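Support reply, case 0932

Customer input (verbatim):
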Amino acid sequence: MPEAGRRKGKPTRRVSDRVSRIDWTRVAGDLDAGGFSLLPSILTARECERLRLEYGRDASYRSTVDMERYRYGRGQYRYFRYPLPPLVNELRQAFYSRLRGIANGWAERLGERSAFPATLDEFLEHCHHTGQQRPTPLVLRYETGDYNRLHQDLYGAIAFPLQVVINLSRPDHDYTGGELILVEQKPRSQSRATALTPGLGDAVIFTNRARPVPGNRGSYRVQMRHGASTITSGQRFALGLIFHDAE
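Our regenerated output:
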């Protein structure tokens, strides 16, 4: 299941190797400071094309969601079924192995007992034991006029506090608009919004619920929601990597 700057030359063959070469100390600092971190060139143009083409293969997916029907926004997304495509599985495994330490550190700072195990397979076994058995990695498709309302991707009592989105289309070429929107809400403070436009194959790691922020009496929870602004032209695809499964 399971900004070090743009790389020059041919990317490494395995995406897990690319993930391992990320400056994870910098990523941890970014996540602590603002709740997100931008990672350039995680996927190649060819890998992005493969995932866009995969969207049309019904057998790869367990569910298709029309966002307007449920008032989530406008657009469509599809959840993969198990077994995941090898590329998606490798990405999910590789990112989890690096993010679990950050997640456990956050849980400790917030006084939570949650301890995320060493491997994604162990974590998913726990999810499945409690009834969260449906895979959550997905591909989103936005067309002109589509958007995604602010939300958090929580599918049951068990939730990993971080997730990853990888842009599969070229901004200002395949589409315009459609920025990734992150909104942070600190207690007794107005909301702060950040708009990101990752390039083709770039990834963004972000908080999908709450992160710890130092206060006068220890750390306190700051909530974050995410969405996508309106696509003003063209078509945009994105891969979402959520680490907990759904009920």
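We compared this against your earlier run and they match. Two observations from our side: The two ends are 17 Å apart (CA to CA). The domain at 15-241 is CATH 2.60.120.620 (Jelly Rolls). Please reopen the case if you see a mismatch on your end.
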